[in-house]
Amino acid sequence: MSAAFLPKTIAMPQTLEPEPLRAPIAKAEPYPVDALGDVLAGAAKALHETVKTPLALCCQSLLASASLAAQPHFDIKLPWGEIKPLSLFLLTIAESGERKSAIDDLVLGAAKAQERSDMLGYEQQLSAYETDLDAWKKQLAAANNKSATAKKQETSDQAAADRHDAILIKPAPPLMPLRFVSDPTVEGLYKLLAASQPSVGLFSDEGGLLIGGHALNNDNALKTMAWWSKLWDGSPFDRVRAGDGSGKLYGRRMALHQMAQPNVMGQLLSDPMANGQGFLARCLVAYPESTIGTRHLTAFEDPKQRHALKRLFAVLKTLMETEPQTGFSPQVLEPTALPLSDQAEQLAIAAYNQFETLMAAGNDLCELRDRTSKAIENACRLAGVLAVIESGTATREISTGHLENGLVLMQWYLAEALRLRGGAMIPPEVKDAEDLSKWLAQRNISQFGTTSIITICPNPLRNAKRLKTAISVLVEHGYLAQNDPGVVIGGKATRHSWKVLHYVL
User: Does domain 33-118+176-290+301-336 have CATH number 1.10.4030?
Assistant: First the structure.
């Protein structure tokens, strides 16, 4: 047969592999759990072995609870003389299903149960206070009336004295026993610290409530993070308001631990305001490798029966139940300042110089100067918390060993920050493209037109310009291909439509 009559081979279009929208995040280094010291490290390992939660997540939760227990009793005296709280700010990224709630319930369960018990007593105290306050108001009103109607000088003087005495015996309200808050505005936090315990924990295993809530919306984020930073620094919490008065709160402490899923925490970590304002520079961030799929058991075990956890809970219970030192008010904490030993101070100087060198242009930490500039302070805070957990209220200084452990932990957190920096700083158009592709995958959409999805796609993309930009990114990277005009979708011919080649995984 002549070659001219052979059937032609039609080249079928091949679907090429798409290009990644961004570089994948490198694998996390193992958490240096032994640097937590015997008590915390033992508890972390016990939690990890029984609950099967990522080890770094266990360590984050334990450090948060340890900081909450230590901060009302002790401050840290930094090598250059400043005195700062032992408060730690921790952020943990964890997938849904990583048992964040289970860990939080275990680590904070005893403290939260005590809080609930104290609330019952508080309600009785509040009822008695309201009765006493009503009686005081009547006594003051009677004294005022007597003073107003007095005619003789002797009677007038006595009435003024009675009025003065009545003012002095005004009953004081009981302290609200709340120690945990999850989603407070700045105003709400001020009111809480004015009426409740002077040491609180801003903790949540659902950080999206805070990150996506009122406190961190566009109108409040800068103010909120600025005040959190001030509390981390140990500064007074002041408020000037025309409507409900002004005030200044001294001696307050706040520890922070927020756990959230990657897409939620990514919003905070990539927020230019959170980075520029300095809030994230104060935070210790961890994104542990998932354990989902590997959590096989031979038998169920109650973690609370592990000796290591019983030992830790006994330490935390003692610290939480011990009355802290206070000043002119039971709400004004006056913690003992823990200095570094002479040898620890020399170690701090050497570490400071090393961090300074690493921040120079071209060196390992040059792109992480905000976090590195606070590395020594955070290492000292960590060392202080570790010392208090080991020695309790008898702690009087930070040893070289404690600071060495604090520096080991701090180096891990800096490495983690470097690892996450590229993955967390996602350009908005790339984030939109990922969200659009995942939305298409969830609905098994194989082709679409802009008019068919613009009213039902994720809310942020219901803007023609933003949607088209996301589509362009997906086309450029090989996830979508544009159809010819006139393709019928949903019974209507479309001017612009696309075929889905791949989904973003």
Answer: no
